[in-house]
Amino acid sequence: xxxxxxxxxxxxxxxxxxxxxxxxxxxxxxxxxxxxxxxxxxxxxxxxxxxxxxxxxxxxxxxxxxxxxxxxxxxxxxxxxxxxxxxxxxxxxxxxxxxxxxxxxxxxxxxxxxxxxxxxxxxxxxxxxxxxxxxxxxxxxxxxxxxxx
Length: 149
Hints:
Blueprint lengths: L43 E2 L7 E4 L3 E8 L5 E16 L3 E15 L2 E6 L3 E4 L4 E17 L7
């Protein structure tokens, strides 16, 4: 049973059989897999507000890959050059570091993330990001309200 640690049976995934009670989407016939190649990723400038910069020149860029129909879940890629800045999370964010490293400090705790590391930043977190050279991450954010991108 996949997902057994949660006590949930996910064995139906990938089959035509769905458990009773699973809601069908109204637009099921229009659903399709959306895929992108690495060559399609073109990062655009995404400046960190000057009042949040604590040191260096942290030049950030972003690329939005996909967003849910309700605009509350967004996936993309973000990178940043060396520098230090404050960040307040107005959403839940899940990341995987693709390249480089970053040290994130919050409430006396400090963690360094490197390529391959995963992390979750909860809604409301106040953090200080320190990027020694460069960092690139893929992210999924979930916002309480729709986010137009």
